[in-house]
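Protein modeling request. Please complete all fields; requests missing the sequence field cannot be processed.
Requester role: graduate student
Desired output: 3D structure, token encoding
Chains: 1
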Amino acid sequence: MSAGSYPAAKYKEVSPGQFDIIDDPETGDGPWIPLDPLQPDLQQWPCYDKAKPLHITVNAGEMLYLPSLWFHHVRQDQATIAGKKSMDGSSVVDENKSTEL
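Delivered output (101 residues):
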């Protein structure tokens, strides 16, 4: 599987549930794998057929740590407040908080 390079951006909430995407050229490009894990294109990504999913349930008050650049897919089955922090050494690169309903 090979990653593409995509420009960094930040999301700014302009009204409840409405966001603008703001380019962030100072951060530079980041790696991204353009694959839908729920409906993968196995002709384009044939090695994905060998992937073995790991399903995790994170309960209220718990946290899941994912290593930097670890390929993952997230779904919520109820109202959720989720936060993400990407760390580069000791500095925070990005913080995103969202509400899924």
